[in-house]
Design goal:
Keywords: Signal, Transferase. This is RING-type E3 ubiquitin transferase. It catalyses: S-ubiquitinyl-[E2 ubiquitin-conjugating enzyme]-L-cysteine + [acceptor protein]-L-lysine = [E2 ubiquitin-conjugating enzyme]-L-cysteine + N(6)-ubiquitinyl-[acceptor protein]-L-lysine. It is elongated, with a radius of gyration of 25 Å. The chain has helices at about 1-15, 30-45, 65-70, 70-80, 90-110, 115-130, 135-150, 160-170, 180-190, 215-235, 240-250, 255-265, 270-285, 295-300, 315, and strands at about 155-160, 195-200, 205-210. With about 325 residues, the protein is mostly helical. The chain has 15 helices and three strands. Strands 1-3-2 form a three-stranded antiparallel sheet. The chain is about 60% helix and about 5% strand. Helix 13 (about 270-285) runs antiparallel to helix 14 (about 295-300).
């Protein structure tokens, strides 16, 4: 609701007939003045994608508005248009906002060019290729809780003993539980560095849950992060609602999955996503000629997203107009 209120209040700014601001008091160079006008016009044209929101009159988003841009795109666009281009600090924020908007655009385009029927099979194939396994939302949750039950008090067990404990407790509810499948779940946690491993001479190593993972919430988050990381390494882009459905069997964990995705993003992720989009477009033949956007997206990807970088000027802001022409 907070984002909706922001969007509705912004529609007031976008569509009221107000005199054009004259920024000359803070801009001394004629070239900067000219570039300011170009950048301002670009942002205003982008802001028009919020126009359907002006007709909602506080009663929520219409279906037309929702189909125009996704909620994440709306939020990122509002962030961009709120930046004060006449101020250096505002231009720095605008550069970061433009980069973020471009990155989200690439993500959504990749999602639209994936085959949803193949997505889950490709994901689980990538998980299995790393010696891990996901047993389904209900069974995986019980298996993780049993691992926690065995180790939450700081106990150290061999992998074999831990797996047998989980299988024996799991079998009454899930007869299909096996030492192999549970061993693959334990391997997933091992890959996520959830264990402190103590090697022993002529005996099996002992596995102890690290202290920070001795609650279900912390263990589950690290488990989910590992699966998302495997997907990213495999070139798969999965939306938060899809992740929620795949890992939890419901739609109530979208925010949880979005936060994991955000945390795993690095400055290099954007450039990698542009490459992945290019590959996806090659598979589909690119009927909409989206590949023409690649130079603009690469330019956005080269922006340093680190806070405090004084890298923006009016000239560099002129590339923001990339929405379709």
């Amino acid at each position: 609701m907070h984002s909706v209120r922001n969007l509705l209040s912004f529609s007031y700014f976008v569509f009221l007939q107000v005199p054009k601001a004259q920024p000359v008091a803070l801009i001394t160079s004629p070239e900067d003045t000219q570039n300011y006008e170009v950048a301002r016009q670009c942002v205003e044209e982008l802001a028009l994608y919020l126009k359907p929101l002006s007709n909602t009159r506080g009663v929520g988003l219409s279906s037309t508005a929702q189909s125009m841009l996704s909620r994440p795109m709306q939020r990122k666009l509002v962030t961009l248009v709120h930046c004060q281009l006449v101020e250096e600090e505002g231009r720095v924020r605008a550069m970061r906002a433009a980069r973020s908007l471009g990155e989200r655009t690439v993500t959504e385009l990749i999602l639209q060019h994936q085959n949803p029927q193949q997505l889950s099979s490709n994901l689980w194939a990538a998980v299995r290729a790393r010696g891990c396994q996901f047993l389904g939302p209900a069974m995986q949750e019980e298996a993780l809780k049993l691992v926690l039950l065995a180790l939450e008090d700081g106990s150290a067990l061999s992998r074999k003993v831990l797996v047998l404990f989980v299988v024996q407790r799991l079998e009454p509810r899930f007869p299909q539980a096996s030492k192999t499948s549970i061993g693959h779940v334990v391997q997933l946690l091992y890959r996520a560095s959830c264990f402190k491993v103590t090697k022993r001479d002529e005996d099996s190593s002992l596995m102890q849950l690290k202290e920070e993972f001795r609650t279900y919430e912390a263990l589950r988050r690290e488990h989910d992060s590992q699966i998302v990381q495997i997907a990213m390494e495999g070139g798969l882009r999965i939306a938060p609602d899809q992740w929620s459905s795949l890992l939890y069997g419901d739609q109530s964990h979208k925010s949880h999955m979005q936060s994991i995705i955000d945390k795993l993003q690095t400055p290099a992720s954007f450039a990698q996503s542009v490459q992945e989009l290019t590959i996806a477009l090659q598979r589909t033949g690119d009927p909409a000629n989206l590949n023409r956007l690649r130079p603009h997206l690469e330019l956005l990807a080269n922006i340093d997203p680190s806070p405090g970088k004084k890298q923006a000027n009016f000239n560099s802001l002129a590339f923001i107009k990339m929405q379709g022409g």
